[in-house]
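Lab notebook, design round three. We kept the backbone fixed and only want residue identities now. Task for the bench partner: fill in a sequence for the structure below.
Input structure tokens:
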């Protein structure tokens, strides 16, 4: 997107910020304490630059919940749970101390469900704010290291195509645990959203 598209990008950033706030509220309900969020960051990039971002986040083993979406725009919503934070959230969500073997057994299903809730807070906010139609895939749980295995073959093939990258950080400080959950939203064909943004958030054009 060009500099002339900055108002469009800013409007989308504001929408995502609201969605991230709702996701933080949902996560707060799960862990039983307020979950502060960092200021969401938004930038233009490609799937290749997204892959580099993944490598920066994934210095340790990470549980990932990803959901593709299609409709008036397309893309990918991803939640990253560093292993220790993911395990803490699963234990809290289960409401009891659980053994390591039980944790392994329930981790995938529990984090997929939680990731679905958080992703839908963000995607639902975007859909409602812009009046756009989106359909979401079922949440996919994966375990990864250094970005490996997060992107599917089609996304890797489209690695040079421009996308909008929006990232948020949810900070957990409770129950003796300190950690973060990371959210990333990759929006393809952003230009298709421009008419909906302009309709929902009238933007004054300058000559």
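Proposed sequence:
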């Amino acid at each position: 997107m060009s500099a002339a598209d900055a108002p469009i990008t800013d409007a989308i950033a504001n929408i995502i910020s609201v969605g991230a706030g709702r996701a933080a509220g949902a996560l707060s309900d799960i862990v039983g304490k307020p979950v502060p969020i960092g200021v969401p960051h938004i930038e233009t990039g490609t799937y290749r630059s997204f892959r580099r971002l993944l490598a920066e986040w994934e210095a340790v083993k990470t549980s990932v919940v990803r959901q593709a979406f299609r409709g008036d725009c397309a893309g990918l919503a991803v939640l990253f749970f560093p292993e220790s934070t993911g395990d803490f959230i699963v234990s809290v969500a289960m409401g009891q101390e659980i053994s390591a073997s039980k944790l392994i057994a329930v981790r995938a299903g529990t984090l997929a469900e939680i990731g679905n809730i958080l992703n839908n807070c963000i995607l639902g906010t975007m859909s409602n704010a812009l009046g756009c139609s989106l359909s979401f895939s079922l949440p996919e749980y994966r375990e990864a290291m250094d970005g490996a295995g997060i992107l599917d073959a089609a996304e890797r093939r489209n690695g040079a195509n421009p996308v909008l990258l929006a990232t948020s950080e949810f900070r957990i400080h409770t129950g003796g645990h300190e950690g973060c959950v990371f959210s990333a939203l990759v929006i393809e064909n952003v230009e298709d959203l421009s008419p909906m943004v302009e309709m929902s958030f009238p933007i004054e054009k300058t000559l």
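Keep this in mind before ordering anything: Residues 100-130 form the longest helix (31 residues).
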